[in-house]
Amino acid sequence: MKKIITTKNAPAPIGPYNQAILTGNTLYISGQIAINPETGELETNELAQETKRVMENLKAILNEAEMDFENVIKTSIFISDMNNFAKINEVYSSYFDADTAPARETVEVANLPKFVNVEISAIAVKFPG
Asked: Which parts of the chain are coiled coil (predicted)?
């Protein structure tokens, strides 16, 4: 059985998908871009702020599912320019403990929705106990 996870603290989907799906103890979070959920506006003027907005959107969805970044086991990072990797990684890494950070891949792509610089999706697991 799947449960749809939705929060007003992250941007509403802009297509035929949901913010996240919880099945069993596993949460699949759709790719997040830097849309401010309060204003609906993109925050792409500065790369660090853009990445922070993406991570805060992920955090809001995790919180709605009663999880946090410690529950994240895998992320996928899509960036429009690999030259931005270090700046994105600096913000991204501040949300994780280096010793327990999730598995991930980072891929440069030709284009992202709304021509943003970064999109991140995640898989999280609610651990027993």
From this structure: 48-75
pTM above 0.85, yes or no: yes
Give the mean pLDDT of 38-64.
97
Q: What is the pLDDT of residues 76-114, one digit of tens each?
A: 999 999 999 999 999 999 999 999 999 999 999 999 999
Instruction: Report the residue count for the chain.
Output: 129
Task: Sketch the domain layout of the chain as residue ranges.
Answer: 2-125
Please give the full DSSP string across the chain, using - where no structure is assigned: -EEEE--TTSPPPSSS--SEEEETTEEEEEEE-SB-TTT--B--SSHHHHHHHHHHHHHHHHHHTT--GGGEEEEEEEES-GGGHHHHHHHHHTTS-TTTPPEEEEEE-S--GGG-SEEEEEEEE----
Residue 66 has pLDDT above 80, yes or no: yes
* 2-125 CATH choice from 3.30.1330.40, 3.30.559.30, 3.40.50.2000, 1.20.1250.10: 3.30.1330.40
